[in-house]
Fold this protein.
Amino acid sequence: MILKKKFNIPTTITIHGTSFRNNLCFENGLQMIKKICSSVDFVICVSDKLQSILNDMDIKNTKVIYNGSLMQPLTEDIQKKPFSIISVGNLIPQKNHLLLIKAVEILHKQYPYITLNILGDGIERERLKQYIVEHHMNDYVSLLGKVENEEVCKQMKERKIFILTSINEGFGIVYIEAMLNKCITVGTINEGIDGFIKDSINGFLIEPSVTAIIAIVEKIFNSNCSNLIDRGLSDASKLTWQNN
C-alpha cells in the first residue's frame, strides 16, 4: 500500500490462509485488510474460498491463482496397501487429526487391517500420542513426525487414501501432492481446497467430523475409484509453478 502510494506503479498482493483469517477476527485487522486491498491493483487469492470472503467484503479487484507443486506426478502403477490411510500436516488443532484418529478407531472394528500414518509435528503431538496409547491403537496408528519431502512422497505412493479435514486453510498444497501420488484425496468442504477438489469427481469433500470420515472411508473401501484417481492425477499435474 505504501509502495503504491509513493511510486504509483502497478501493485499486487497475495492473500494466504492463516494470518488472513486471524486478522478477520479483529475490527482493526478487518479495516486494514479493506484499506490495503482497495489501494492495490490486484489481490491474488490462493483459493476460491478466500476470493469469496473478499468479495463479500465488497473487495472486487481479486483473482484466484492456486499454489503450485514441485512434486512429479506418479506415472507407474504401484500396488497401494489395502485399507491404508495417510494424513500430512502440522499437528495443530485446526488440522483435526484427532477426529481422524477417532474415526479410524471405530473403523478398525469393521476393518481390522486398517492402518493410519500421520506425518508432521506440532503442539498436538503429545495429546494425539496419549490418545493412541490409552486406546491401544499403536498397532495400526503411527505418528511419524516431521519428515523430508522424499519420505512424504514415498509414504503417499504406498497409501490408498489421503485425508485432511482441516479448517481455516488457505489452499493446502499437500492435497495436490496426494493427488499426484494417486491417493484418493479427501478434503474439507467450504475450505480452501474446495473449488479445486470437485466432490466425487477428482476427490471427496466432507464436513470435519468423525461420522463424515467414517462414511467416506466406508464408501471408498467399497467402491472402484479408478476414474476419480485418474482425474485427480490429471488435474493436479496442471498445477505446476511454471503454469501458474
About this structure: The chain has a mean pLDDT of 94. Residues 97-110 form the longest helix (14 residues).
